[in-house]
Amino acid sequence: DAKTTQPNSMESNEEEPVHLPCNHSTISGTDYIHWYRQLPSQGPEYVIHGLTSNVNNRMASLAIAEDRKSSTLILHRATLRDAAVYYCILRDGTLAGGTSYGKLTFGQGTILTVHP
Amino acid sequence: DAGVIQSPRHEVTEMGQEVTLRCKPISGHNSLFWYRQTMMRGLELLIYFNNNVPIDDSGMPEDRFSAKMPNASFSTLKIQPSEPRDSAVYFCASSLGVHQPQHFGDGTRLSIL
Q1: Contact with chain A for residue B104, Cβ under 8 A
Q2: For testing the chain B interface, which of A30, A91, A103 should be mutated: the one with the most B CBs within 10 Å?
Q3: Over the stretch A66-108, which tens digit does the pLDDT of each residue have?
């Protein structure tokens, strides 16, 4: 499985933008970039995903480098509720049978601390 | 809308006992996943069902673990006999299709004494 590299931790102040980086130099052409986050004592929560183009939704934006070897999750205005572990995951989008179903493989993620 | 529902939320039992964890996926979702999370190993996929059929159980640690999905609205993960090293938080997730975003339950925190 293609791997991702994220900083262990980051800090931000409330109402400021946060840029969470992710390196994935071995990404393949069929890999989608997915982001999930896990708030304390909860299950992971889907945030956003993309393939090549930048993506926006109500939670965040995803900026993907032109060579796709890195990406950045952008929280436009951090709130205290955004304090969580953020996971960047490469997911194979190939529609193949058996175990080639694009399983999610979670790494250690980035612990985001938001200060009031 | 109801999300993925897991029960119990907490379970404490003695070594050697049988443990059954339950999951109700979101209605209409045809993919179901069981994960385990520990401090040492992080979040690991145990088993994946598609349309109630187990597709990938390569993450199931050993024969003491078994999972079933008798219908589209219910799944169980059973550990028999349980051991202290099975202590972890177990999550169930479901999705509309295997490539769609996964929706996770709040987990079952299992402690084996």
Answers
A1: yes
A2: A103
A3: 999 999 999 999 999 999 999 999 988 776 554 456 688 899 9
**Contact yes or no for B93 and A43 at CB 8 A:** yes
For residue A12, give every residue at least 6 positions away whose Cβ sits within 8 Å of its Cβ, in sequence order, or none.
A18, A75, A78, A112, A113, A114, A115
Phi, psi of A108 (to 5 degrees): -85, -20
Pairing mode, strands A110-115 and A9-13: parallel
User: Which residues, in sequence order, are CB contacts of A109 under 8 Å at separation 6+?
Assistant: A6, A38, A85, A86, A87, A88
Mean pLDDT, rounded, for B31-37: 96
**In this complex, do B103 and A46 lie within 8 Å of one another by their Cβ atoms?**
yes
Q: Are the C-beta atoms of residues B21 and B111 closer than 8 Å to each other?
A: no
Q: Do residues B50 and B31 lie in contact, with contact meaning Cβ atoms separated by under 8 Å?
A: yes
- Contacts of residue A8, defined as CB under 8 A and 6 or more positions apart, other chains included, come to A108, A110, A111
CA dihedral for B11, B66, B51, B34, sign (positive or negative): positive
Nearest to A57 by CA among B101, B82, B109, B61: B101
Among B5, B90, B99, B103, the strongest candidate for a mutation testing the A interface, having the largest count of A CBs within 10 A, is B99
B25 inside 8 A of chain A by CB? no
Residues A13 and A77: their CA atoms lie apart, in Å, by: 9
